[in-house]
């Protein structure tokens, strides 16, 4: 872990100075830049160096404020830890998409002979090599974030923070040294961490989570993924794509909160690619066998029977919990939702304490997405220090699930649209299509499907778009803009397609569900 | 490939009869190429007894003034004509029958090149009226408040006859229409009624005709034409138009005939896109991308034998198999929709009549009320020694039975660059000979970036040279050719030896050998392109054109499809929507794909002036490229905004992987008035390439550095 050494080296100076020294140094810098933090050490203190926190800190610094970021990665139960940048960079979007890409490349290697490439068999995958490449890239990003903070004169502390009072936090270094920091405004952006089903015997002891999978040096081997969240399906998808025997165990429905028709197509495609599914099952016990394998016992909720299986790795992806427990929020009087433990915020991202804010995954009711956290952080800094009044618009946030067949969506699911507007007022246009590249490669396109949910009344405002197919993220982004512009079905239909692409199928959706006609696109 | 004897299906009755009930209920009126938003269609009869309406009357009928195709006029611009004041009011319903409003845009008639004489405007109006009269079984010129008009409408309604109605009091230029009608019919009053192109007269004469049985006779008079519509050319536009017309209950024929290329290449139904264009091109592009993916995959941990060779024959066979299935699919689709397909070469011999010549030289003739020309284009040759004998074009490349080897690509069109990119990606030694600029018509900054990426990835460019001679050194598959080229700037000449020379210097319209002169359809003498007005109508009212042969329009499959479909809907479906040629997105599938929508920077500056524009741009590094170790600061995003129109995005350009997929949605957003603010307010999808457009901050005018450091 070269980066750890490097990070430690960087951390050195920060750790050596006492906080008062820092404050003085900062004060000089601050006044030189025309900002005075008043009685506090900083204008802004950001707790959490993830996507939202860093964006907010950098924006505030750019507006001339004296800013500090404190970030500390508590090692996972398996001992995995990482550098600056938060979930997205270290144990989320970035490594996930890269390993997803590795899996997609496996598919392309299989396609290649159809396109005339003589690829000698056997084709094998070396997890070590991939993991090293991915991890090196992530480390370069950690470094990049450090450099960016330095460039913008944001003070970075690698300490674990907790509130002392409503303007002060106490930070503890890895070595146990304490530092007090105070600020006029405090932003909590500590994110979340995977949840362990601690009630299950052996879960904590033998299981891993998404915090660990991307940092494994060796292939996880035969894996049981427990959960039906997008994290669960994405992990199971790339493990299958890399040639590992992978099973997903889910208690109820896949991708809760997403359009359920799309969700079932996502899992159907995964099943066709070799991912096993154990539906309506819950694990009850994990035991380590003498050979190091893990024996998992589970209950089939349908039959009530108990089953058993042996795996090399058990990955829990049953949800995430916000990182609020060690913050001593009560010392500052910050209210949380007792059920979710998330911090309650208003439209301005303010907590129950007016000068303390919360953004990103730790805030109640926010989408847990990097770009929303980034934008919320930036907008918050601009409101605080840039005379801006712009508040974050959390509606119509597009997202993409990077399962083997990618699922991009923006706006309402079909269920949600029906619930809000009534079935008789909603028109759904849909199509099964075949990506051109699939034809020669003889790939099955049974799950390549697009659905546009519109109001029925002309001009048929688009409420939601759901796209399942290759490059779904790229396809969805532009249409998200369209929906933001208030696009109607007619307007989308009047957009000329780009031929031959998958995205053009969106502009050719003619069959409504109501019509009952066959939505399979034929010809070209 | 396509051996069906066209005769087999000839003479088959109007199979479309059973489809008459497919008239869309929302139907407003079968407006024949008219910009009038007005003609209102009485509701279609509930009964299906009204089979295919024979709206095409006989030429020999005693029309008050028959609608002969007007003689070719010295009209330079076929664009939309402003007839009086713009008739842009929407009409409501007839007798309380709700007629849904046309889904079209506001029917604006403002023509870009105004300043045409009133005589031209009058001529245009006459043409449109004749079109209405000719295009509708029953055409009533009416006024909504006139009781006589109401009586006539009720008469037809009671007869269960569908009629098209133009309410003169509800269109803005009703007075002009009335004047023109009086010129055509010597009748100034309304109602003014035409049945099967025969001028009935007013209310009284129509009732008299009803009593005498003349009206019924006229109504029963079926078309004396063989078809309602003949489409010449079975490509994207032609097929779309034909099928749509058939869906609307019309009797339709498609003539398609592929004249073999000089190298003898021929193909099946579906036109350029399917056979020698988009489809094989994108598939070969995919083959090349997979070569890149194979390289990348090792960095992502995949291991396999070091030597990976590409087998041209395997690839082309797979691609050709797919194309055959598409050809077959098109045949099937025509059959399902009861469109008669004839694999013959069509030529006009007289008005409304076409001669079809099949492969064996057998001739047949067919007549139709309306024609759509959709013959497309074919690659151009240089006209130098040896070009037709030894060079190939994109017509030949995709089915070439052998690997082309070391290749010279002549030209800098997107076809040239795409082909060069594919061949290089498959491991061949490729040189592109360019006379002047790359991708003329596209944003030149983007074009140069496309070119420099290709150059960095092995494509050689010979700039400012044109070939003067191609000589065969050796026969073979491939053989060896010597190419002599001369500089465009001086006396310098160079020589090179290649296995294959691919010409991609442009395309010529297939309009010169189809008897258009016989019926007076005007073409641009220089380019062969056909000028049309904004409803794709040529100067001969019953002849329309779609696709690549249109003058001043885009040469793109989806545009042709859209134009063809909408044309059929306007002709036969009562729709008014016109094809919108603005903000059409497209993508060039070069090794690094280039997607764009709207204006190039040059064009934007020309139209809006530089000081009124703000250009935002940035490089970006796709996440997938990082671990793969591919070039940073190569992929590029640019938008052009109009400062004085709320920073509306008027040009969108992206150079990067999956550019087509990225561009499509933004094109839809541009249709809805995309602004910079909206881009800024939209959340990105992480991690994608498309998200870069939601975080554009650096303006070109600022001169700030856009290179990416780290993430």
UniProtKB/TrEMBL annotation, chain A:
Taxonomy, superkingdom: Eukaryota
Amino acids binding FAD: 97, 361
Pyridine nucleotide-disulphide oxidoreductase dimerisation domain residues: 397-508
Disulfide bonds: 88-93
Domain FAD/NAD(P)-binding: from-to ranges: 42-377
Protein name as annotated: thioredoxin-disulfide reductase (NADPH)
Active-site residues from the entry: 499
MF GO annotations: flavin adenine dinucleotide binding; glutathione-disulfide reductase (NADPH) activity; thioredoxin-disulfide reductase (NADPH) activity
A GO cellular component annotation in the UniProt record: mitochondrion
EC number: 1.8.1.9
Family: Belongs to the class-I pyridine nucleotide-disulfide oxidoreductase family.
Keywords assigned: Disulfide bond, FAD, Flavoprotein, NAD, NADP, Nucleotide-binding, Oxidoreductase, Redox-active center, Selenocysteine
SUPFAM superfamilies tied to this protein: FAD/NAD(P)-binding domain (SSF51905), FAD/NAD-linked reductases, dimerisation (C-terminal) domain (SSF55424)
InterPro entries attached to this UniProt entry: FAD/NAD-bd_sf (IPR036188), FAD/NAD-binding_dom (IPR023753), FAD/NAD-linked_Rdtase_dimer_sf (IPR016156), GSHR/TRXR-like (IPR046952), Pyr_nuc-diS_OxRdtase (IPR001100), Pyr_nucl-diS_OxRdtase_dimer (IPR004099), Pyr_OxRdtase_I_AS (IPR012999), Thioredoxin/glutathione_Rdtase (IPR006338)
Residues reported to bind NAD(+): 227-234, 319
Organism: Acinonyx jubatus
Signal peptide extent: none
From TrEMBL, chain B:
Alphabetical list of Gene3D superfamilies matching this protein: 3.30.390.30, FAD/NAD(P)-binding domain (3.50.50.60), Glutaredoxin (3.40.30.10)
A family per Pfam: Pyr_redox_2
EC number(s) per entry: 1.8.1.9
Residues in FAD/NAD(P)-binding domain copies: 227-564
Residues covered by region (Disordered): 1-122
Domain Pyridine nucleotide-disulphide oxidoreductase dimerisation: residue ranges: 584-695
Required co-factors: FAD
Swiss-Prot/TrEMBL keywords: Disulfide bond, Electron transport, FAD, Flavoprotein, NADP, Oxidoreductase, Redox-active center, Selenocysteine, Transport
InterPro entries the record matches: FAD/NAD-bd_sf, FAD/NAD-binding_dom, FAD/NAD-linked_Rdtase_dimer_sf, GLR_AS, Glutaredoxin, Glutaredoxin_euk/vir, GSHR/TRXR-like, Pyr_nucl-diS_OxRdtase_dimer
Compositionally biased residues, Pro residues: 36-46
Residue span, Glutaredoxin domain: 138-199
PANTHER family noted in UniProt: GLUTATHIONE REDUCTASE, THIOREDOXIN-DISULFIDE REDUCTASE
Family per similarity comment: Belongs to the class-I pyridine nucleotide-disulfide oxidoreductase family.
General function of this protein: Has a glutathione-disulfide oxidoreductase activity in the presence of NADPH and glutathione reductase. Reduces low molecular weight disulfides and proteins.
Protein name: thioredoxin-disulfide reductase (NADPH)
Annotated source species: Acinonyx jubatus (Cheetah)
